[in-house]
Amino acid sequence: MRRALVLGLVAAFSAGLAAPASAVSPAVLPTLARNLVAYYDFEHPVRGDRTLEQDRGRSGTALSLVNGGADMRVRDGAFRGSRNSLQLKQVNPAVAGNDDWKAGLYSESGVPSLRAFNGARQASIMGWVKMTGQNPAPNSNSANPDDLYGAIGLAGVLSGDSNGHAVRALLELIAVDGELKLVALGRRLDGGESQTFAATEDWRTLLPQGEWVFLSATFDFDTGAMALYRNGKALAGRYVAAGDPWRLVGEPEPDVASATDPRGFKIGGSYPQNTREGNACNCRMDSLMFLDRAVRPWEVALQYRWMRR
After folding, report:
1. What are the C-alpha distances in Å from 242 to residues 123, 131, 135, 184, 238?
2. Chain segment 215-242, per-residue pLDDT in tens
3. Calpha distance 259→73 (Å, rounded)
4. Which of 52, 77, 157, 173 is most buried by its number of CB atoms within 10 A?
5. 18, exposed or middle or buried, with CB in 10 Å at 0-12, 13-18, 19+?
6. Whole-Å CA distances, 86 to 6, 102, 107, 241
7. Could you tell me whether strands 264-267 and 151-158 are parallel, antiparallel, or unpaired per DSSP bridges?
8. Per-residue pLDDT tens digits for 97-138
9. Are 151 and 198 a contacting pair, CB within 8 Å?
10. C-alpha span between 185 and 265 (Å, rounded)
């Protein structure tokens, strides 16, 4: 049955036919619609408040455009069906203030609309990224003007006890053994250890300046498997932490994430509650997708082709 669906979708692409739109958005592969917890295309400001972006996924979780507000929506779509993307940037690298352009939401009591990630067995993050400035950015929290942040913030689901930085599932660039790498980073248990899957290839090759790239990260909290994809193709990489950081060995089974609502999302940096700057990204993002299951490799490839059709 799955093979028939794949062949049918491929045939639609090849024939140039209009495929059936999902109930969520015509840009979303229909097989993903059911698990699409949140989807932000930056074409739909909340009526009456353009500093908020509508969620086109099933959760209805509005996203806050922090510091830049409506000006963060720019006319630069990542693919033919898109008009706008989200500009993220460091505003004043010499000052330890709170003016960086980033996006997200935060609640210390957890975000009930994101309950799909409460006790989740799997998760995925997908979206388009274009580097538009200096990365990594200067560390505005350091007195040394030559210090750079050790990471470049992309997109993540916060843990249930997050301070605005700690995550349950994250797509980001971080330092691994002293070298910046594109990673999927997951934390199954609140307050527990994280596991990182780091891409082998140089991040500057994966994310060249001024080029739109479709990135995906998948997480399976039961098996411990993670994966990274670029433009629909799986990336070679390695797991960084040895042993059993997610505490998967032993009962009970299956293994799932902590039974807590995530405290929100962070996009383009840490601390979406805007209490501190951290890991700024001088970049643009488009069509960010947060799902409560691990997207299959063939779906990642088709989602990339679906948007480019």
Report:
1. 22, 32, 29, 16, 11
2. 999 999 999 999 999 999 999 999 999 9
3. 35
4. 157
5. exposed
6. 31, 9, 22, 33
7. antiparallel
8. 899 999 999 999 999 999 999 999 999 999 999 999 999 999
9. no
10. 14
